[in-house]
Amino acid sequence: MALFTLQNLNLTNAESLLSKHISPAFERVKVLDERWAVTRAKLIQDMVLANEATKFLQSQEASLCPECGTKLVSRGQQQRKLVMQHNQEVHLHRSYGTCPSCGEGFFPLDKELGLLTHHAFTPVIEEGMVRLGSWMPFEKARQQLVFFTGTLVGEATVRRLSEVSGAACQAAQMAQVVALQKEMPASPAGVSKALMSVDGAFVQLTKGEWREVKMLVLGEVEEGVMEGGEAVVHSRALSYFSRMAGVREFEEAVTLEIHQCQSIWKVQCYQPQRPL
């Protein structure tokens, strides 16, 4: 196989370039992987359904409403379709129960598998979308997901799931902040010297509006050393927190990050004289 470098490679041209250097044997492996995806989807579907049917029949009397704890009444089964690698579909026939007290409907299998309502992809595929969508532009994330999993998705889907997950993460963080402010636990011991740096930058949103994103950087400051005849101080264990928010909201949001990094209040702060 010929040697080549991927430095400064445009990802949109990566597949055409790589195809010139991949032997026919690798192409056959790719075909086999796609065929195996069909068998894998069927195996997963059969295993999940066999386990679900047995478990629900055995524990039907003990199945309780997650809202009020009342025993559920079986209402038969409903089908759900999930898309996994290489666009293979898994069809789940799940038992459905309703609560006679509060009227809530409930799929025990969905809860067991961690499936969210109205989501069409398996959790692994959705996690891949969110991880890539938080790392690069949504269209680039879509392209990379297609390349690595063979699953066709739209840019809008990657955007929607990434934004929903980001909002859920932010809500969980703020709930922890509220709990921290309410409980007022003792401050962690902290470190002897801590680095705290705050900055901001304006970014342009998709509709053309410019908004400021604020960033907090926390870290531990090491003892100074001599390098090249001059004293140098390095930092380590850096932690970053960013939020597009106003000043007061940002101040409140960073409370948790500061607390978790054990760098709050009773520590000596060091302001570096040059970039570290």
Give the key terms:
disordered N terminus; 3-stranded antiparallel beta sheet; disordered C terminus; alpha+beta; 4-stranded mixed beta sheet; 276 residues; 41% helix
Short overview:
The chain has 276 residues and is of the alpha+beta class. Helix content is 41%, strand content 23%.
Characterize the structure shown.
The chain is an alpha+beta fold and 276 residues long. The chain is 41% helix and 23% strand. It is built from 7 helices and 9 strands. The strands form 3 sheets. Strands 8-5-4-9 form a 4-stranded mixed beta sheet, covered by helices on one side. Strands 1-2-3 form a 3-stranded antiparallel beta sheet. The chain has a two-stranded antiparallel ribbon with strand order 6-7. α4 packs across α6 (155-183) and α6 crosses α7 (247-260). It is extended, with a radius of gyration of 26 Å. The chain starts with 13 loop residues before the first helix and ends in a 7-residue tail after the last strand. Residues 1-9 and 263-276 have low confidence and may be disordered.
